[in-house]
């Protein structure tokens, strides 16, 4: 791996539009066609892009049974344990409606309501992601979303990966559409004869999915545009080079555009990590992908000290940061910008990707500066509650009318004046 003396201009931010003009044109065409031709277009794109016939657009009961038959019991049990952990974590996020009554009888509050219908996109082109189903569906269920439509691209036989079907079934997801890419996003956003439109679409995907989500935003809400995976490891001499290397490779194997970076003041550690990465690459099944990612987006940054390392991490604002230092908890609060913070040598990112409980759908591309992990909040909306008492209106009507006239809105002013002129409001 490249070992680079730190450069203050380090950044993970990539222009999301660069080189995407051609893909955007393809996406716009697919969105318009599915909007116009519905199911017929959905089937035609699935045939063209995924090579699959989908006479039945949704996963059938027989397919569910076959999926369970082809999965090992230990895989189902691991999914069940992960579900329990992720549900437990997200249950703690549920906000409550609230109301407060003031001494003059005014009642103010906030009503929290779940979304009626949500679409969950589960990527399935190059790899199957049952873990992402758990991360997307569980917070929606905890929020009590009314209707969940899941969608994922089928393989050439017209089926979804058995682990995807089992993960969804373990969660009780009833509607599983077999469609991927921009055509799936169009079906969820606009609706077709068989796919009911939703209010919000969540879930990561490739550029076709991301650009389609961005294009339908406004018609529906979306969670975020989640880009390629990113890991940044802040490490001192106490870190084990084999652990650091393993964790870098765990994200580099995702795809050629994944980012894997170490930030350390220790030259000795840097050299050992670089050698370890080469050693561990030797028998890694996805070594070609990981090598490419490390060549293009991997680095070991050398800093003057650990405080400079923290400053670099905050500048990068990565999706994940691991703290492999002697006192990991000393860095909490100092690391301000990261999607998820993993503390200590047993907290490999894989623990969070699959099992610990927190969500693995996280802000990427430097957006951790201003956004947060997917959570129960993403599946709720809030309405304000206002009940003004007679006493409060008597006390404040002149202020309200003055502010209205300041903006030139006479009708606003009269709407409070009228309640005073008629002898004052009833209590
Ligand atoms: N951030 C996260 O939490 C997270 C989790 C899982 C996956 N991911 C990311 O999701 C992405 C998954 O990508 P993927 O490709 O494997 O699956 P995908 O399901 O996102 O995309 C597959 C679909 O892309 C469309 N497509 C492919 N080539 C096309 C073309 N030439 N024209 C039109 N449409 C085309 C097809 O419709 C196909 O069904 C990866 O980048 C992965 O890293 C992120
Ligand atoms: N690391 C990914 C998010 O960046 C999530 C994931 C899914 N499966 C394995 N990992
Ligand atoms: Zn991962």
From TrEMBL:
Binds 1 zinc ion per subunit. NAD(+) binds at residues 121, 183, 206. Keywords: Amino-acid biosynthesis, Histidine biosynthesis, Metal-binding, NAD, Oxidoreductase, Zinc. Its EC number is 1.1.1.23. GO terms for cellular component: cytosol. SUPFAM superfamilies: ALDH-like. The active site is at residues 319-320. InterPro entries: Ald_DH/histidinol_DH, Histidinol_DH_CS, Histidinol_DH_monofunct, Hstdl_DH. The keyword Amino-acid biosynthesis applies. Its cofactor is Zn(2+). CDD domains: Histidinol_dh. It catalyses: L-histidinol + 2 NAD(+) + H2O = L-histidine + 2 NADH + 3 H(+). GO terms for biological process: L-histidine biosynthetic process. Belongs to the histidinol dehydrogenase family. This is Histidinol dehydrogenase. It comes from Natribacillus halophilus. The gene is hisD.
